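chain below, 152 aa
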Amino acid sequence: MAYLERLKGDRHAGYHYCLLCHPHEHGPEIEEEDGLTDYRDAIGRTVTFCEAHAAEYSASPERTIFVNVYLIDRAYGGPEEGGWWYDCGQIIAVYPCDTKEAASKLKDWLEKGRYSNEGRRDIGSVLSEGIFNVVLAWEPGENYPRYRPHYE
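prediction:
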């Protein structure tokens, strides 16, 4: 299974640095002709790599793809400026899969069944109990935000 497919034509991600390098390792604004290229990875994300990391990433052994299920809702941030809210996500299920095809089928099945948002109110509603978000990822999901945001 190929983990990276080189994208042709225009840069889609808009990143000016390699996903695995520190942003300043190549300088602040390295362009594609200077060694950065966009790729589509096995879970459909557009990612940018320098040549060395693209080769390393493509040669890595097959990886587990996780189907993460979040319950997304709003939490009260504080009274500043008349009150403010922030989005938060609680991980409620993690399903490891061996292939992208299996993960995609499971994601579709979960979204239509157990974790359907049919009949649920939008998180902007005072009557909302949250909505489900089913995503594919390389890592098991975690609750977010990691730290409660503060008003500045």
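Residues 4-58 form one domain. The helical segments are 51-58, 100-112.
thats it, cya
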